[in-house]
Amino acid sequence: MDRQSTRLAQQTMAFVLAGGRGSRLYELTDRRAKPAMYFGGKSRIIDFALSNAVNSGIRRIGVATQYKAHSLIRHLQRGWSFFRAERNESLDILPASQQLDNENWYKGTADAVTQNIDIIRGYAPKYIIILAGDHIYKQDYSLMIKHHVLSGADVTVGCIEVPREDAKGFGVMKVDSADQILDFVEKPADPPPMPDNPDMALASMGIYVFETEYLCRLLDECSKEDGYGHDFGGDIIPKIVREGSANAHPFSRSCVRTGLEEKPYWRDVGTIDAFWQANVDLTDFEPELDLYDNEWPIWTYSELTPPAKFIHNEEGRRGHAVSSMVSGGCIISGSRLDQCLLFTGVKTHSFAELEGVVAMPYVVINRKARLRNVVIDRGVEIPEGLVVGENPELDAKRFRRSENGICMITQPMIDRLES
């Protein structure tokens, strides 16, 4: 990181939008917001955006919460309480405000900023970077902020290259050869192609850099317009494209990679299939996302747990794991694991066979269970002898089964089996 990038990061506040439910994760987000979902064995999804900010040198952070926020707030209080006011550091948790002239809920992404303008101005950052708190990636935001300042644009939008067919679910940009945004459309039926690659489109990452005072004036101006939807992608960015200057910042220019990561890594784990796949991918010999990079750590709340333990060494009853990640506090008792990811405190009992299992914290898997390609919610107890992943029709009746055959298991689903 060069001196100018460091200085600009110190003048920037990160505002993290972390209020979304993530409805395509169904029961997994019944009790927690999507940014609070577990990922990678010990982290939460929001840890990636927050870690990127801290590692980039940004030490003023606000997190806007809304849906089912308790789990998220508790995680932030436990794992992100190391900021020191005397060093001009802060992390503010910003639930939707109860104001006399306003509704309780944030009306949209831009309204989350509007409701907290007084807090933002109180810190007086020169720049503000708006972040989505529900994606998995590593990025040096200081490089994007520097790009914004040098370009002189009113806004800089972080973007990734995606196949045009996949871009239909994103905000998509049409740009010229100098990265200036000529058009910005939300979830288009026919996404505009990239200038030099007609099969690909530039999709918004939900990351925006503004000069703070400019954004505050713009939000105030937009609030007086008819039909204002209080949304960055739907209202603010298209308005700037029409009336001002907007630049695209390709993710490849500021993504953080080690020698093991051959291409930029960015994932929206907003479906059961995507969530399972991204977690299981981490068990690969050389995963596309390197979580072992000490130079760009993913900060999180680390529970005090004993080491993982593997016990029993008899034929057919041997505690062992192949191509798997096993977190602290786990006990693998006479079970076989293949390409599994177990979060903190999972216990598996004798003769259980697990393949492609993503088990959230404190799951118990009892004897002789056979599980294949499943996601298990926190605290679930799998009954003795339960078989999942071998009979698609039966699985679909008892659990939530995705199009790709991934089964999601929650405790209420287990309780219905036993009633």
Question: What can you see in these coordinates?
Answer:
With about 425 residues, this protein is α/β, with parallel strands linked by helices. It contains 11 helices and 29 strands. The chain has helices at about 5-10, 45-55, 70-80, 110-115, 115-125, 140-150, 210-220, 230-245, 270-280, 390-400, 410-419; strands spanning about 10-15, 40, 45, 60-65, 90-95, 125-130, 135, 155-165, 170-175, 180-185, 200-210, 245-250, 265, 310, 315, 315-320, 320, 325, 330-335, 335-340, 340, 345-350, 355-360, 365, 370-375, 380, 385-390, 400, 405-410. The strands form 6 sheets. Strands 1, 4, 5, 6, 8, 9, 10, 11 and 12 form a 9-stranded mixed sheet that branches. The chain starts with a helix and ends with a helix. About 45% of the residues are buried. The model has no long low-confidence stretch (mean pLDDT about 95). Homotetramer. It is an enzyme of class 2 (transferase). One of its GO terms (biological process) is glycogen biosynthetic process.
